[in-house]
Amino acid sequence: MCHDTVPASLPKPGPYQLNESNGINYQDFTSDNNADVSVALLTDIYGCNDFYQSLATYFAAQGWQSHLVDFFSELGELPEVTREAAFARRHNLHDREICDALVDYINEKGISAIVGFCLGGNFVMELAHKKVQAKLVAFYPFPAGLPNQDAIEPAFTYLDQLEQAVSVLMGAQDDRVGIDNVKRLAEAAENIPALKLNVYPDSKHGFLEDLDSTDSGLQKNAAHALETCLNVISGKAGSA
Description:
Largest sheet: 8 strands, mixed
Oligomer: single chain
């Protein structure tokens, strides 16, 4: 899976309330409902596990409104935490329908930033395609697309049309996305101002877990990616 442990540098998952808006179910970790910054966190195919609950808690600790979106709440828990079971449940989603609902939810709740991982990163790319007015961060999305019964367009088909800025964080050795696809994305980014891309040498898929790595290079990559994400959300940086 993308993330199956919680780095020690992130907090333990904190308390939350279950809420819903325009068909989007989410776990609300917010401690200050008057915060100017509101961030929605979109998960990978494994859903709202401890890693994402920890990250949502971390966002809330920054003084932000923090929502962890649960795409799978109506599909039930995984019968087992395996890649096969996660993909089987994932195939019951309707990606295009979800992205349309996300737009309504973002507008209804006044979400100012969206951060997505893997599958969630693909949704972030689609939100950029839809010109959603929010700060957008995608960790290791699949620019060549993911199969689905209600598939959204692969990012490679519309990259040159992007107008809404999106910060994308990738590992150069991401063999799940495809190393050739990472290289192709990097080449495209050179001529697409809206695509703010960081490719981290030696890092693989799910590299944010390397916050705890004993390899100083990998740890530095993860720390830089997290700092970049925070800066984009807070408006301290306009690019990755």
